[in-house]
Amino acid sequence: MSEKQKKATAYWKENVRYLFILLFIWFAVSFGAGILFKDALNTIKIGGFKLGFWFAQQGSIYVFVVLIFVYVRLMNKLDKKYGYNE
Amino acid sequence: MSVQVWTYLLVGITFTLYIGIAIWSRAGSTKEFYVAGGGVSPLANGMATAADWMSAASFISMAGIIAFAGYDGSVYLMGWTGGYVLLALLLAPYLRKFGKFTVPDFIGDRYYSNTARIVAVFCALIVSFTYVAGQMRGVGVVFSRFLQVDINTGVIIGMVIVLFYAVLGGMKGITYTQVAQYCVLIFAFMVPAIFISFQMTGNPIPQLGMGSTLNDGSGTFLMDRLNGLSTELGFAEYTDGTKSVIDVFAITLALMVGTAGLPHVIVRFFTVKRVKDARKSAGLALLLIAILYTTAPAVSVFAKINLINTVSNKEYSLMPVWFKNWEETGLLQFDDKNNDGIIQFVADKDKNELMVDNDIVVIANPEIANLPAWVIALVAAGALAAALSTAAGLLLVISASVSHDLIKKVFKPSISEKGELWAARGAATVAVVIAGYFGIHPPGFVAAVVALAFGLAAASFFPAIVLGIFYKKMNKEGAIGGMIVGISLMLFYMAKFKLGWLGEIPDKSEWWFGISPEGFGTVAMIVNFAVALVINRFTPEPPEEVQEIVENIRIPSGAGEAVDH
């Protein structure tokens, strides 16, 4: 394997690792907190919101937005590290 | 000034603006027509994507659906936003690096096969046409409600406007009109929401107002009041749903994956300059969408409480003017079953006397809350912006599928640039006319099918694209087999359980795994993945140069501009 290919493989591996972590959080806030564990979380109240309901109609959306911007930052750094930035 | 005058004024100003932008940014080349020249800034693309994405359904119907479905409405909120995470992480950057004009372009080249390309075109046309018919209808409905013109006249006015800027401007014209349309629609949605939140809770931010206490001195939380009112009238608690957990799970996933697989959304990411711009503009698009999507559930709560307080157990003769106005349109219907002159609004179907259309929650909300006339007119302009921007985006996908993917890539590769541009304009014109026809004569199944466009996209495109990027050894036999089986299974399930084309529609208890047609895209998508991977095992590997393409799209640098080839 050439130097160039090695670099590309290492870059891709790190990229995929980020994806796993970020998509785990994506799954946890929506399908986890908003659907599967909603009833348990609904016993907790914050202000007027039951927590499971809040995740389903508000919280998960906020987390989604943050996730994409975290991804943008991580990838920009990764691009720089491997010299793929332009 | 009256509401009527304000509405004519605001709709007139915004339409003039859209047409002005279209003339200023008309397309001169196929590249400008398909991908706006490839130099759109991330913010402009984010705004355009948001307007493209938020349709008449998001603007007019969603808050109402949630108001009546309570927790069950969460599937739309999570489903239609969570898909952007998938889009940003799994699709947009790589498709941008690939750098072609359309989704079938990617499928055709990545799977080195015109069969794959044609299957993809077929899927894109099914998804886009079902979706666009609903938009044209939406335009007609808004015109008829706010400007007292006939629905059909409304559809035709909408057709002419869209025709003008989509055919003339292509993607370039659409992009910049969508930027303007985003501003109009978000302003129109937020102003009444902020007014009402402040009125009811003293907190002007609707997302916080929703979790606050009522302003009436009782100190009760809004959500508790709503749960109380709901149970009192015999409905389920607002914060609990009636759908099963597995169905909520499946619908949410189908909507997310479908969102990520919709061609008119994906194609927007071909218009930016670099891979990093594609990532960033996906984030900006979701941020701009989230403003509306986190406000909508708050609007639902405010409106539901307002509505119950105004009508429940009140004398019919004492109803405010807006009640009578909306009764005339048929969106509100009162049937005094026990002849006591009092409105019973309860869960029990035999005793309930009030029928409320979902759409009224957003459309009539400003009137119910006694807001000024210009706010009511603003809602009309916003709804039109939402419907027109989505219709234009879809028409472009249809026209590019025909002129680029079919004519240029399959039937007549020798066509000149100029000829292709004319073909694109011609295809867009035909598509507008067909969409308008469906808007005027909506086949009974359109409304039912629009919600299922997501399932179709999930069952067809998403697996083929994801495997094409993340699995280098994925071959054409597997991808084509997966797409055909996936979309056929979804169409079969729709026909059987939603449209009743295969005999009488079976009872819910016969749903496979307890999953509704709306959520079945999840199952069809899994089947697509499975079929693709199994066929892939028993058929030859893709050629070396295709595997090199895959390695290449994984690296962000050197994207250049979207090029013809």
UniProtKB/TrEMBL annotation, chain A:
Protein keywords: Membrane, Transmembrane, Transmembrane helix
| NCBIfam families named in the record | Na_symport_sm
- Matches recorded under Pfam families: DUF4212
Q: Which residues form the Sodium symporter small subunit domain?
A: 9-84
Which InterPro entries does the protein's record reference? Na_symporter_ssu
Q: Does the keyword Transferase apply?
A: no
Q: Which residues cross the membrane?
A: 16-37, 52-72
Q: What is this protein called?
A: DUF4212 domain-containing protein
Q: Which organism is it from?
A: Arenibacter arenosicollis
Q: Which domain of life is it from?
A: Bacteria
